[in-house]
């Protein structure tokens, strides 16, 4: 691959381990409205692999509607969003699932990326959730990604797979979209957004999916999401942690 002029990082599944937080909030939200555990992590992964699921509030509603009887009263998106946020953010009495999130790449690896190329975050998270994670894990420090790392979030415009978030990140970094702009993500929507913007898409397996692949003697490109990302045009699907990313440009 050519030397990058910009590295764009998705957050969930790339920087943040969210199998117990955002993914868990989807499952618990669906279980609340369905009074059953019929929506499983496998169904959520399959939906993510199909694409068009960058908003977890909307995905939760879609999964609920899919499993409710036709005669049942369907909750509104506002209803689902309120329950999801209660589960994810927590209440005065109950900690939120956001407390379970951990940083996937090492601080050493992340601190090395700005020396390769300017870095931006491109996420479907609300800005508050994005900044909370960056602050909590010290990623805004001068020794990491830096206090001025640009972040393109839910509030900024259309979500991936639209090209908008990638193009907006390029604008914020002051670079022209092109092959030398590398978008790193964990779903087909990330790869589609990169390609629509005329940039390069690189996939990364989530820790949970990669663990299952290893148990089956397979690699990151063999996970359900890995296969879907390769089908969408990803140049490569890496192991969790981004350790392989610098080597792509050597």
Descriptive overview:
- This protein is of the alpha/beta class.
- 42% of the residues lie in helices and 10% in strands.
- The protein has helices at residues 22-34, 41-50, 56-67, 77-89, 107-116, 127-136, 164-173, 188-196, 207-215, 224-232; strands spanning 6-9, 16-17, 102-103, 119-122, 151-152, 181-185, 200-204, 237-238.
- A 6-stranded parallel beta sheet has the order 5-4-1-6-7-8. The chain has a two-stranded antiparallel ribbon with strand order 2-3.
- Strand 6 (181-185), helix 8 and strand 7 (200-204) form a beta-alpha-beta unit.
- Helix 2 runs parallel beside helix 10 (224-232) and helix 8 (188-196) runs parallel beside helix 10.
- It is globular and about 55 Å long.
- The mean pLDDT is 94.
Q: What's the rounded overall pLDDT mean?
A: 94
Structural class: alpha/beta
Task: Please describe the biggest sheet, giving its number of strands, its sense, and whether it closes into a barrel.
Answer: 6 strands, parallel
**Please, what is the oligomeric state?**
single chain
Cα end-to-end separation: 8 Å
The helix tally amounts to 10
The residue fraction in helices comes out at: 40-55%
Shape: globular
Roughly how many Å is the radius of gyration? Answer: 18 Å
- Total beta-strand segments: 8
Strand order, sheet with most strands: 5-4-1-6-7-8
Strand content: 5-15%
Layout of strands and helices, then pairs:
Layout: E1 6-9, E2 16-17, H1 22-34, H2 41-50, H3 56-67, H4 77-89, E3 102-103, H5 107-116, E4 119-122, H6 127-136, E5 151-152, H7 164-173, E6 181-185, H8 188-196, E7 200-204, H9 207-215, H10 224-232, E8 237-238
Parallel strand pairs: 1-4, 1-6, 4-5, 6-7, 7-8
Antiparallel strand pairs: 2-3
Helix pairs in contact: 1-3, 1-4, 2-10, 3-4, 8-10
